[in-house]
Design goal:
CATH class of the largest domain in chain A: Alpha Beta
Number of domains of chain A: 2
Number of strands of chain A: 11
GO molecular function, one term (chains A, B): RNA binding
CATH topology of the largest domain in chain A: Alpha/beta knot
Number of helices of chain A: 11
CATH architecture of the largest domain in chain A: 3-Layer(aba) Sandwich
Largest sheet of chain A: 7 strands, parallel
Shape of chain A: elongated
Oligomer: homodimer
Protein name (chains A, B): RNA methyltransferase
Structural class of chain A: alpha/beta
Organism (chains A, B): Nocardioides oleivorans
Order of helices and strands of chain A: HHEHEHEHEHEHEHEHEEEHEH
Keywords (chains A, B): Methyltransferase, Transferase
Family (chains A, B): Belongs to the class IV-like SAM-binding methyltransferase superfamily. RNA methyltransferase TrmH family.
Helix content of chain A: 25-40%
Largest interface: A-B, 38 and 38 residues
């Protein structure tokens, strides 16, 4: 390590990587940055995903085991910080190929628990739903409609590595995702505060796809009507609703519990 | 309305209110700002809580019913924006007295479901836990230890009015809150990823206080050991843990379900 001169922020490769903070560049190149050791570990667990890892000299030593088989470019602190949107970067950022799979691949893998997000807009919410889906043992996730970019740095960070743990599809039309799930025998449940079925009275034991809507306006009626049931989380107090990722957690764990009972 | 000249940002009362963006000023004066119609509605539902409501001329008309019995100061858009930390302010901000009650009041009200947060640091997480506690029908919440200020604008905003829906106590020492709950016959359950009891195998039917720790480091061992049980949410996938407010939602709804079965 001592004889390697760290790359600086003006280095051509670092500059190119930095452009990936823009969604348009990420989409065009089908590349993104995964920031922090959990994300880098997740990315390295997928064959062919990582192009290279940028690491500060200190992080290169600290994460020596993690980076043992990776292509690593040692960069200085300033160059690393320019690749991270974190307030206190952990010192490792992986340049990765996009990992979303075609919708059919995600749906035809016979999932028992699938998540379809329509128009989730907040990067932190989207990341949190992916993390929770992973924890609850979901088999895949579809970001549909006008959802936030799965490769947004905030989304990637809030998945804490889970982005790399379960199959992900991106589908412009949420109705196509719903119909694909139904065609594979999944019951599609729309999470809908105005739904007529109580979450804890619903039969959740079979293969299920949960459909979640936007943070502010929920699910458009024409989309919710495609679902097999519209399911509401009971509100016992005076709150009017739950935050999207919170609601998703309650629904997904109710399913996990019923399916594993 | 047409003959009222809106107050401007340099108005003395507006300037004084603006100082409440600082925690030290909020704590000293025991005042805070509640931003947006849901928060203002919640504040107005508590006798003596609201000192005055600042509203733009447009919001004063739009929320005429809500503000019918309130003391309202009409302010211009710029003055209102200076009182709001929201990117797109809704036009109404209430100047409120602090509403936290002594710990004994919250605990002696014979709660069946109580939430104790120790060292929750992120304002959005804290607000989200309060909102979820309300939705799950909790009877009170204690922000303990080095928790974020309950009156932080981001916390207030993310409760979406729930801050005003259930009794809140602030207690510097989390151990005191735990012991107070136990003294009133509540079973204290520590949410702990390393806990030895599976959430879905625990008996949650009795009066319960949930103890949640910090976002990054969880519960200190000496605090978790005071709890009657250390309960873990099962992780079925490859995620290492759940986000704090997500975990709280799963635990609180598991309790609500068991208590109401």
């Amino acid at each position: 390590m001592n004889d390697v001169t760290p790359l600086v922020a003006s280095n051509a490769r670092v500059k190119e990587a930095r452009k990936l903070s823009r969604r348009s560049v990420r989409t065009e190149r089908r590349l993104f940055l995964a920031d922090g050791p959990k994300a880098v570990e997740g990315a390295l667990s997928i064959d062919g995903c990582v192009v290279e890892v940028f690491a500060t000299p200190a992080a290169f030593e600290q994460y020596a085991d993690l980076l043992a088989s990776a292509v690593v470019s040692v960069v200085d602190e300033r160059a690393l910080a320019s690749l991270s949107d974190s307030v206190s970067p952990a010192g490792v950022v992986a340049l990765c190929h996009h990992i979303d799979a075609p919708l059919e691949h995600v749906v035809t893998a016979s999932p028992r628990l699938l998540v379809i997000c329509a128009d989730v807009r907040d990067p932190g919410n989207a990341g949190n739903v992916i993390r929770t889906a992973d924890a609850a043992g979901a088999d895949g996730i579809v970001l549909a409609g006008q959802s936030v970019d799965a490769y947004n740095p905030k989304t990637v960070r809030s998945t804490v590595g889970s982005l790399f743990h379960l199959p992900l599809a991106v589908e412009r039309d949420p109705a196509i995702a719903v119909r694909a799930a139904q065609a594979r025998g999944l019951t599609v449940l729309a999470a809908d505060g105005a739904g007529d079925v109580d979450l804890f009275e619903a039969d959740l034991s079979g293969p299920t796809a949960w459909l979640f809507g936007n943070e502010a306006w929920g699910l458009p009626d024409e989309l919710a009507r495609l679902a097999d049931q519209r399911v509401a989380i009971p509100i016992h107090g005076r709150a009017e609703s739950l935050n999207l990722s919170t609601a998703a957690a309650v629904c997904l764990y109710a399913s996990a519990r019923a399916q594993r009972a």
